[in-house]
């Protein structure tokens, strides 16, 4: 008889149930992880809503950290008892994109807990050893659950190559935006200009190194950015919201010859977008999607050395039995939640 574990199982849109399911079995090259903390991502919320084509039932959850409790006979990278963070972006390693180093865009890959495998809203998850990375004891499991998000920010900023005294405007100060603020500061960006609609997020951004904060609910962010860059606009604008409004702001707030990083997940149709500035200002717009395994070790070091502080981003914690309540809180009060973490 198979061993059982508790898991939050999605049977269809909005139909999320805590159940006893079979505990996953370990193959020769796999690792069984006792999940200790899993961050709730916007992707999970959208999957919960039925916005992704998935094969039900599924166990979601991919921003996870835990303890290795069993390893397959061929595993060399980790040992039982190791604290690890999970890389949930699976790739084949053989397609043309993988061979180009774009493993995050693999045509045969997918996201743990949505496209492939069984996710981390469960007591255990199993995955190949190449998708787990050891973390030091001074990183808590809750902090480690934010590392996957940090890797996506790190991946995006690698594309930007922020240099000292580069002016950087970051639109949006959610969890990702606040990580962008910290990382841009570490890279020597100056001034770091941030926008948000909540004063408490702006106060946190100041603690993270923002030089200029703009409450976009009460003042025109584009005008304010221009005023703080001698009328030129920022060298780099990072759009970290994912809305048509802020994407338009980015185009108008960046200097001629500048660069925009489209980081926020923009799924809405852009209506009445004037692309003339793209030509006239000779702008560069970069996209950024997820991260690759190369991004994990640097991000783990940043957190371990406290160069990046993720702890204040964890505003809410829930037990596994309360994961549906967590989803509902995020939907009803998104401005009050930076990162919600499911603790097991």
Write a compact overview of the structure shown.
The chain is an alpha/beta fold.
Question: If you had to describe this structure to a student in words, what would you say it looks like?
Answer:
The chain is an alpha/beta fold. The chain has 2 domains: 4-146 and 310-343, Medium-chain alcohol dehydrogenases, catalytic domain (Quinone Oxidoreductase, Chain A, domain 1), CATH 3.90.180; 152-287, Rossmann fold (3-Layer(aba) Sandwich), CATH 3.40.50.720. Helix content is 26%, strand content 28%. It contains 11 helices and 18 strands. The chain has helices spanning 42-48, 96-99, 141-144, 147-160, 175-186, 199-207, 221-227, 244-253, 276-280, 296-304, 323-332, and strands spanning 4-12, 15-22, 30-39, 58-59, 63-71, 83-86, 89-90, 110-111, 124-128, 132-134, 168-171, 192-196, 212-215, 234-239, 254-262, 284-287, 314-319, 339-343. Strands 3, 5, 6, 9, 10, 17 and 18 form a 7-stranded mixed β-sheet that branches. The longest helix has 14 residues, at 147-160. It is globular. The two termini are 24 Å apart. The model has no long low-confidence stretch (mean pLDDT 97).
């Amino acid at each position: 008889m198979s061993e059982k574990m508790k898991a939050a199982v999605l049977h269809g849109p909005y139909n999320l149930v805590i159940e006893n399911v079979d505990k996953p079995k370990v193959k020769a090259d796999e690792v069984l992880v006792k999940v200790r903390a899993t961050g709730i991502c916007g992707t999970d919320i959208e999957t919960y809503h039925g916005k992704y084509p998935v094969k039900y039932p599924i166990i979601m959850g991919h921003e996870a950290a835990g303890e290795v409790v069993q390893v397959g006979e061929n595993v060399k990278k980790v040992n039982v008892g190791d604290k690890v963070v999970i890389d949930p972006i699976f790739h084949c390693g053989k397609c043309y994109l993988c061979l180009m180093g774009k493993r995050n865009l693999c045509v045969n890959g997918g996201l743990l807990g949505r496209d492939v495998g069984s996710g981390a809203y469960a007591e255990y998850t199993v995955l190949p050893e190449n998708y787990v990375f050891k973390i030091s004891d001074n990183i808590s499991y809750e902090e480690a659950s934010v590392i996957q998000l940090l890797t996506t920010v790190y991946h995006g900023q690698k594309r930007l190559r922020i240099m000292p005294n580069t002016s950087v405007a970051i639109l949006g100060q959610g969890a990702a935006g606040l990580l962008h603020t910290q990382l841009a500061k570490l890279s020597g960006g100056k001034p770091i200009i941030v926008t948000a609609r909540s004063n408490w997020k702006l106060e946190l951004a100041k603690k993270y190194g923002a030089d200029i904060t703009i409450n976009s609910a009460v003042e025109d962010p584009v005008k304010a950015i221009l005023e703080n860059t001698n009328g030129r606009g920022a060298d780099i604008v990072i759009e970290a919201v994912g809305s048509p409004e802020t994407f338009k702001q980015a185009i108008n707030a960046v200097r001629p010859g500048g660069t925009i990083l489209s980081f926020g997940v923009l799924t809405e149709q852009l209506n009445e977008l004037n692309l003339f500035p793209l030509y006239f200002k000779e702008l560069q717009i970069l996209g950024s999607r997820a991260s690759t395994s190369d991004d994990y070790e640097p991000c783990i070091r940043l957190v371990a050395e406290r160069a990046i502080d993720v702890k204040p981003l964890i505003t809410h914690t829930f037990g596994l039995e309360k994961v549906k309540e967590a989803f509902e809180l995020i939907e009803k009060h998104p401005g009050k939640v930076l990162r919600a973490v499911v603790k097991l």
